[in-house]
Amino acid sequence: MRRTTAALLGLCGLLLAGGCAATVEGSGSIAAGAARPRATAQPSASPSASASGGTASPGRSQLKCGGTVISPTGAPYCFTSPPGFQDVSSSVSISASTGRGDKYRSAVAVAPRDLIIVTVYEVMVDTDTIAGETLQAELKTVLGQLSKQGFTFDSTTAKTSTVDGARTFRYHARQEAQELESDLYFLFRGKTEIQVNCQWKDKAAEIGKGCASVLDTLQVKTVK
Q1: Strand partners, 151
Q2: 112 — alpha (psi -120 to 50), left (phi > 0) or beta?
Q3: Is the CB of residue 47 less than 8 Å from the CB of residue 165?
Q4: pLDDT digit string (tens) for 123-139?
Q5: CB neighbours (10 Å) of residue 144?
Q6: Model's pTM, two decimal places?
Q7: ∠ CA 115-160-209 to the nearest 5 degrees?
Q8: How many other CB atoms sit within 10 Å of the CB of residue 90?
Q9: CA–CA separation, 116 vs 100, rounded Å?
Q10: In this structure, what DSSP letter does residue 33 have?
Q11: 8-28+67-220: what fold?
Q12: What is the DSSP letter of 51?
């Protein structure tokens, strides 16, 4: 698979860490009438965590992913590569417009413009102690910045859930100039922010299933 590019990335270092919006290079087109992913995951909520409030759970101390494991050395996360996807972590191209870079990144793809990127940013505060409303307010600021750069969102109110105990906020984005769509997930656990960007050009169904698989198998180690 040739060099893979993504069209959108969100926050880098939320809350007291020099937060910024970031875009990435690339171009493509969506097939006319392309559907959204039909298998977007709705992870089951942890009994000790909610997207609206903080969490009292100490979280995961070890990672134990199975199958074809995707996890950069030293990263506080792992997930199982979905069937039919190729690990393109070493070739994915992301060009941030401002701010500091991410700490860890991995990606799997079914086509050069149809891919799932998992990115980690280190946060300077323990997000488990921060109210969900505060996190959403920060995210709305980022969505506003991205809107000025040509991105549109179905809603600036997130769909909330938890993934492996991490509070999760989901948005759907479109980039008309590059004719791409993305389901963006922002996960918060301790001092870790994880972004899952499920982007598609014309393989909506494949990305939907792959995104659901990544979210279902994603494990997040708590860093305080």
Answers
A1: 175
A2: alpha
A3: no
A4: 889 999 999 999 999 99
A5: 12
A6: 0.79
A7: 30
A8: 8
A9: 21
A10: T
A11: Protein Transport Mog1p; Chain A (3.40.1000)
A12: S
